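Repro case for the chain-ordering regression, as requested:
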Amino acid sequence: MTAESKAKVRYERPIIRKMNSGLMNKFGTRTEYAPTSHIDSVPVKRIIQEYGSPCFVISERTLRKTYQSALRAFKTRYPKVQFAWSYKTNYIDAVCNVFHQEGSWAEVVSGFEYEKAIRNGVPGNKIIFNGPDKSTDELKRAIENESLIHIDHFDELYDLIEITETSKKKAKVAIRVNMDVGVYPLWDRFGFNYESYQAWQAIVKIMNCDRMELVGLHCHIGTFMLTSNAYSVAASKLCDLAYNIKLKWNKSIQYLDLGGGFASTNTLRGSYLPGSDSSPGFDDYAEAITSTILNFGFKQEDLPLLILETGRAMVDDAGYLLGTVLANKRLSDGRRATIMDFGVNILFTAFWYEHKISPAQEFTHHTEEMVVYGPLCMNIDKIRESVSLPLLSRGDHVVVHKVGAYNMTQWMQFIAMRPNVVMIDAKGEVHKIRERETIDTLTGLELKPDHLKTFKL
Amino acid sequence: MKLLSNIAVSESGYLFNPTNGDSFSSNAVATDIISLLKQDKNPDEIKKAILEKYDVEKSTIERDLDEFLQELRDNYLMDGDVR
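-- result from build under test --
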């Protein structure tokens, strides 16, 4: 900027805004004026200069703070609590290890995630192996490592009976139980059903097999549960099973695993209220679960360990996506459209949430209603259908909030490479935790048959 | 191409069209452009004035002014063809 230009007035795109009356809802329209120029005291501009745009940012401070507040909510209410980090929510090693340092076990749903947990140094007996797809070799390895195998279906149960006939060690198993907890949709595709006695049949089969030890009972009633009462129903049904096992075989179940599904404070698409107002907090979930177990009637010495596999609510708030405006345009109906350099390929959760987007620099109070698109050459690539934002110009930076869960595992490599992921540590230092992909990342995996190696045009 | 003569414009950027009752708010740059239009300045003169006052590239004001004039037309605040 020249000395002359410094004396000039700051420019902003000219805009007129029609004034309407009688169209507001009772909460008014939400406008994101407040810029997010820093994340954990680190300037957004600096991160973009060093690591490029778009770029995912994880706040280690927020990860630890969220974990500790979740743990406090449960530990102040129940004597034996254990969290297990849900790898599928975000399995970047640095993120997993923050949770492991805090004391989390690992909860994995595939052989790939199991291997990742082992490589991170999680002891085998502190890995919970969930999911419907476990190969014979993976099951053998899990038995050998004394991992907690959560059986999903009868075919897996029969596999285990067969495998354990020749294995040196007993398999430590639990069953996943599905049940009606009074919410829609009912998740009955995973595990064994409670109401139809399928779960009890599975328990009987395991108890009659001396090569398997039934150590726990597991459920995962759904995702983004907006009512804590559903967990109370689920806990009560698991307690009922544990109680009946004690009655029939005089065996105490070591743990009840209530799974995950706690909602984060993101706003679901189509919600009337913002997520921060409608999502129950950790205290609500903890109260519903622990009071049910404590009041069920277990003897003090029989109280099971309570395991929780919370993923989304633990990591969502700690993730940010930094991006840049590529272009502005006006649509045929007069609406403003802003095109960002990130799309649904890397921000998968834009399909579910109305993500909060903030400008990363100061603007005036003038705003415009706009559609926010990604850069993909596809019609589905829409980040926000309608959002009121300041007058963003080409090259301006934005911050998308609460993107820590699922994006860095469900992102797609489509027409562009996946970007850098950085973590800001508790001292404000920025560390790269996942390298931006290059064309070699992809072409390195491709093979050309001899007859397709050359061509003439 | 001209701002309709009966459009009322306040110093703070409030616009009122008495023909259809529409009212608009505008930001500082828009208010300046509208006031220059009121003085019958042509696009080149407007661009020059904005470049002198604001910290902006020529190519940016070029693009933004074209779009803004179209927006005024879309909102029935101008007559004549801007294209």
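Ordering looks correct now. Chain A has two domains: 27-57+318-441, 60-316.
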